[in-house]
Amino acid sequence: MILITGGAGYIGAHVALELMQQGDDVLILDNLCNSYRSTLDRIAALSGRRPGFIQGDVRNRGLLDTVFADYPIDAVVHCAGLKAVGESVREPLRYYDTNVGGTVTLCQAMAHAGVFNLLFSSSATVYGDCATMPIDETCATGQPTNPYGQSKLMAENVMQSMVCSDERWSVGLLRYFNPIGAHKSGLLGEAPTSTPNNLLPYLLQVASGQRAALSVFGRDYDTPDGTGVRDYIHVVDLAEGHVKALDALRTQRGVQIWNLGTGLGYSVLEVVRAFEKVSGVQVPLVFEGRRAGDIARCWANPEKALNELGWSARRSLDRMLADAWRWECHLHQEEATTLVS
Ligand code: NAD
Ligand code: UFG
Questions:
Q1: Model pTM?
Q2: Which positions are annotated as active-site residues?
Q3: Pocket test for ligand 2, best of 10, 153, 199 (most atoms within 8 A of CB)
Q4: Cβ neighbours of residue 27 under 8 Å, at least 6 residues apart?
Q5: Per the CB 3.0–4.6 Å rule, which of 64, 80, 240, 282 could disulfide with 58?
Q6: Mean pLDDT throughout 165-172?
Q7: Which CATH number fits domain 2-340: 3.30.70.1230, 3.40.50.1100, 3.40.50.720, 3.30.420.40?
Q8: From CA 116, how far away is CA 162, in angstroms rounded?
Q9: How far apart are CA 55 and CA 38, in angstroms?
Q10: To which H or E segment does residue 9 belong?
Q11: What is the rounded CA–CA span in Å between residue 181 and residue 197?
Q12: Interhelix angle 317-340/268-279, nearest 10 degrees
């Protein structure tokens, strides 16, 4: 059985679905601080099975000890965490407590229970403002410009030290680039509980009429059209990467680091134009100054994951945007139905 912390969230839910579709038993632990219980129904509808669920906090050692005692868990995917960059600047202690403290508590409980296979949701943000593109795993980790990024790097360092001290561990640090998109059914996707910070969820809310315009942060970067360039990856490709990485963990020891990206960079304006083409909906734009802490360019060299895991991202930007739009329309329709009934 695989324990997914934060499994009711955007990425964790897609990982849960992918694992269940290939026959694994999944237990989700989530405190639902940024997700909804209804996500479990969505996973059940798509997989034909219901994942186990415990509503609880990853920082609660007593609860974790009970969970490991009660279930035959042999690996953990640790997605639980806080991820809003701006909020992390305002509330750094909360971010360090959850993202670093939560990881320490989880690792302690795992070691106590004799479970040593762990996949961690890390981020390309740990590379900081890298001078050369694409970024491979040998690039030095940089100086993340906000507490969120710092907390991810600190959590990575905690696990690196832990593995050096105890050779039973097998830890995979998955450095995600920019996950977007949704399940192709349109029944599972990102459901922000507050104003979105990231490009795609904000753009979707503008396109569906919930917000007036998309702010484009900075048009004077050293990029072809002056807007920020990122490596957008379909969330289902990302989830498939977790499945491959979990398989690899079972036959290895130590720490492995894998970039999960496509190797392609798209600017903000390229994403907007591609979305307009795919959806047929115009997105009003407002050009604003650069967002504090943003970098100009960031895309992956994904070769290590290909060579070591046999994994590569297969879904195009158009596909990511079409799937995300289908999900947004579905959510909208669901909300309208709930209001009517
Ligand atoms: P999300 O907010 O949708 O999911 C995180 C889940 O963790 C939520 O369901 C939330 O309720 C839960 N959670 C938070 N704190 C918890 C706690 N103390 N105990 C138990 N559950 C808790 O975010 P996501 O986009 O699915 O991201 C998952 C992970 O991937 C996070 O760790 C995030 O930092 C990392 N990551 C995300 C991105 C991205 O762009 N989405 C990029 C890089 C890394
Ligand atoms: N952007 C806008 N308008 C918006 C939101 C974003 O123009 O309303 C721009 C940003 O300036 C940037 C690009 O769109 O150029 C992507 O921004 P996101 O906020 O979507 O993503 P980031 O690259 O800033 O960060 C994301 C996650 C981090 C993760 C990182 C990994 O938020 O958690 O990807 O690359 F670490």
A1: 0.98
A2: 148
A3: 199
A4: 1, 2, 3, 4, 51, 52, 53, 54, 67, 71, 73
A5: 80
A6: 98
A7: 3.40.50.720
A8: 11
A9: 13
A10: none
A11: 15
A12: 60
Among residues 109, 73, 76, 84, the alpha carbon closest in space to that of 34 is found at 84
11 pLDDT more than 50: yes
Say how many Å lie between the CA of residue 79 and the centre of ligand 1.
5
Q: How does pLDDT run across 83-124, given as a tens digit for each residue?
A: 998 899 999 999 999 999 999 999 999 999 999 999 999 999
- Residue range 202-228, pLDDT digits in tens: 999 999 999 999 999 999 999 999 999
**Cα 269 to ligand 2 centre (Å):** 13
For residues 80 and 328, what is the distance between their CA atoms, to the nearest angstrom? 23
**Which residues pair with residue 123 across a beta bridge?**
176
Q: CB under 6 Å to ligand 2: residues? A: 83, 123-125, 177-178, 197-199, 202, 214-217, 228, 230, 268, 291, 294, 298
Q: Which of 34, 82, 87, 125 to mutate to test the pocket of ligand 2 (most atoms within 8 A of CB)?
A: 125
pLDDT of residue 339: 53
339 Cα to the center of ligand 2, angstroms: 32
User: What's the distance, CA 121 to chain centroid?
Assistant: 6
At 50, the amino acid letter reads R
Please name the residue whose Cα sits nearest to atom 33 of ligand 2: 83
Neighbours of 196 (CB within 10 A): 16
